[in-house]
Amino acid sequence: MTTTPEPAEAPVTHSGRLIDARLHLLDRQILDCNEVSVATVDDIELAGMEFGSALDPAAPPRIDAILTGSTLATRIFGGRPPRARLQRIHWSDVLTVGVTVGLRVRSESLDATWTERWVRDHIIGHIPGGRHAPE
């Protein structure tokens, strides 16, 4: 006797795009609107869910922000970086999610690049020839 497999349920559709955070976001390079490298995605911040409560299938959690920061030490030694060490990039600033995460804004307008700007202005800028591109 042969059995016919039951047809798979139709996937649930939502107004937004379904994203697998591990596959589509984490460790992806972030590029600003001019395709200048900003950082990498280290974590995400979700909205629409409470810790310890059951998820409502009618209202799935949504991404509120992507987080980036100094996480190298925690990746080597384990643990989680302190929340204060992570910089937020609002999800509304994200334009595309693909091989890289593209932003609608310039990197200078983000808090995520403050350390790079500080090093450029206070250290590299004082080195002779450090204020212009090499010729």
Task: Describe this structure in a few short sentences.
The protein has helices at residues 21-25, 72-77, 114-122, and strands at 29-31, 37-40, 43-47, 62-69, 86-90, 94-97, 101-103. With 135 residues, the protein is an alpha+beta fold.
List keywords for this structure.
3 helices; alpha+beta; 4-stranded mixed β-sheet; 24% strand; 3-stranded antiparallel β-sheet; 135 residues
Helix/strand-derived class?
A: alpha+beta
Strand content: 15-25%
Strand order of the largest sheet: 2-1-7-6
Number of DSSP helical runs? 3
Question: How many beta-strand segments?
Answer: 7
Largest sheet: 4 strands, mixed
- Average per-residue pLDDT, rounded, comes to 78
Calculate the terminal CA-CA distance, rounded to whole Å. Answer: 79 Å
Uncertain segments are 1-14
Q: What string gives the helices and strands in order? A: HEEEEHEEEH
Shape: elongated
> Helical content, roughly?
10-25%
- Determine Rg (CA atoms, Å): 20 Å
Would you give an account of this structure?
The chain has 135 residues and is α+β, with helices and mostly antiparallel strands. Helices cover 15% and strands 24% of the residues. It has three helices and seven strands; from the N terminus they run αββββαβββα. The protein has helices spanning 21-25, 72-77, 114-122; strands at residues 29-31, 37-40, 43-47, 62-69, 86-90, 94-97, 101-103. The longest helix is centred in the C-terminal third of the chain and has 9 residues, at 114-122. It is elongated.
